What we know:
Two copies of one chain form a homodimer. By secondary structure, the first copy, chain A, is of the alpha/beta class. The first copy, chain A, is 38% helix and 11% strand. Chain A folds into two domains: 6-53, Orthogonal Bundle (Helicase, Ruva Protein, domain 3); 80-198, 3-Layer(aba) Sandwich (Dna Topoisomerase Vi A Subunit, Chain: A, domain 2), CATH 3.40.1360.10. The longest helix of chain A is centred in the first third of the chain and has 17 residues, at 38-54.
Amino acid sequence: MNLPSRLLDDAVEAFAGLPGIGRKTALRLVLHLLRRPEEEVSAFGEAIARMRREIRFCRICRNASDQDTCSICSNPARNTGVVCVVENLRDLLAIEHTGQFNGRYHILGGVVSPLDGIGPEQLAVEELEERARSGEIREALMALPPTIEGDTTIHYLAKRLESHRIPVTLLARGVSFGGDLEYVDELTLARSIATRRPYAPEGASEGGSASGEGPR
Amino acid sequence: MNLPSRLLDDAVEAFAGLPGIGRKTALRLVLHLLRRPEEEVSAFGEAIARMRREIRFCRICRNASDQDTCSICSNPARNTGVVCVVENLRDLLAIEHTGQFNGRYHILGGVVSPLDGIGPEQLAVEELEERARSGEIREALMALPPTIEGDTTIHYLAKRLESHRIPVTLLARGVSFGGDLEYVDELTLARSIATRRPYAPEGASEGGSASGEGPR
């Protein structure tokens, strides 16, 4: 569709660059904003730009924050000894939303995925070990995605944490394999935090292995 | 959902204020932008704000434009004598998109709707009559929504244009009653431009009345 104005076109292109928004939806949003007061639209643009410009990442857990230390890490009511290791901010928010976890977090920034060229050195693994070394962590709850890459990452992290004698726990495998943590229903996710169990490597005596793919 | 950062929350609220975007989608968009380079996000916000700040409305037809006169009104290849009266910019774009209309436009800015307190004085009716008075218009094609309000508006405009002896034409009633022009399929819309017919008030000799709701 040819738009009569370059300014209009630029704004449509900006929206259409967002995930899940096509040009038709983008145009609808732009035409909506065109009818709004100038200050409101200006505030809209500024809220977005400011968020990206000023947001900081917590020096402890890498959570998004307005300060150096995020609201979770600086909350004295939280259990500082239990650290929940998550892939990203979305998964942190999903777990917070269940209200079942009262510890701190550690955002890895991804999972080990050799096919995508992502090794442990690109993730916040060193930072996690540093937290372990400092004696802060008494339990590491691995809330990583239930995929091959997630399992590989858990395996790797468990090895790195072994020397610090930190018990590694897993979300109960109530979450379905191959899914996306963000879309797991709240109840399943909440229960899987409550029924977390110790990490047992493949072939250990426990019966069901940690990756949970054995016969029922 | 409680977000760990005020900045994040402001950005989510900004997106969630747009039509058709809920808080969950808004959060997804914000987290996407959080991963993009700062310059890109800044350019996004600026493109939106700049669009609203700098866009002008054509002094002839009120189309969105980068200049005082829009690209349609300033195009010498267009037939200046035929003016298509539309409710808003979206409908103008829908008609332009068919490629069937080569005249100019007149954006009313709404339709007469006593229930919503919208009278002719809130619409660009005076401006339309001024264009008629100047001798610019040889035909006024009413491409208003096929609703009671649209028909009322057409009736009113036809009366206003009567004294200037300007023939008023209508889109052929191929478009369904109660619909939204923007969502009419392209073929129907294109054909209804090609088969437009003279305006005949209710009960005229033509058989089918202008509002086209008589027995078949």
